[in-house]
Amino acid sequence: MNEEILRLFMIGFIIVFLWVVLFWKFFKKITLIQKDFEIENQAAYKRIKRLQCVNLWILSLYVLMIVLFVFTPKWYKVFLPIDALNNPAINMMGLLILKISLVWVVVVQLQLDAAIFKYSRKIDELSSMELVFFFERLLIKGLLLMFIGMFVTLSNIIGLLLCCAAFWYYYKKKNNMRRLQV
After folding, report:
1. Beta bridge partners of 156
2. Considering the entire predicted model, what is its pTM?
3. Which of 48, 61, 55, 49 is nearest to 21 (CA)?
4. Predicted confidence (pLDDT) per residue in 128-152, tens digit
5. Rounded CA gap, 65 and 81, in Å?
6. What is the extent of the structural domain holding 60?
7. Which of 31, 133, 137, 176 is most buried, by CB atoms within 10 Å?
8. How many CA atoms lie within 13 A of 87 on its CB side?
9. Which of 94, 99, 69 has the alpha carbon at shortest distance from 8?
């Protein structure tokens, strides 16, 4: 894959991904997805706060990495690229993972909207809230999949460390939740 095409794809991807993950409410309005009700207002639900601060920091570092990769390749060297992994086949695999993560996040956002709507209507409140938490975890898994895709596409040491940190935090949080349930 040509380096210029990869740069164009990466900046386009991160804009769309951020729009879908962080600004879903506005994305729905522009794309005419479920425009008939405002579930965030009905349920007083804050979508961004549920993504966990650590994941938002890691996401912002990946955004910085992409901006440097696209606009200032000299500064991108700060992230310690792994030249052996800069291969068109590996890059294509990373792009495929990124596309899958984007589809994953869109589907989860739609399902999360349905669960929040059900919760806001007080329909079987406890199981609805459990469903909301389930879809929030799926959204975080989509974010983790995006981190893997970023590392595979832009293979560098800092990306690997960020990816490992995100997985470590996810499993630490998951184990803490299990201990609280027991």
Report:
1. 81
2. 0.82
3. 48
4. 677 878 888 898 999 999 999 999 9
5. 11
6. 3-181
7. 137
8. 6
9. 69
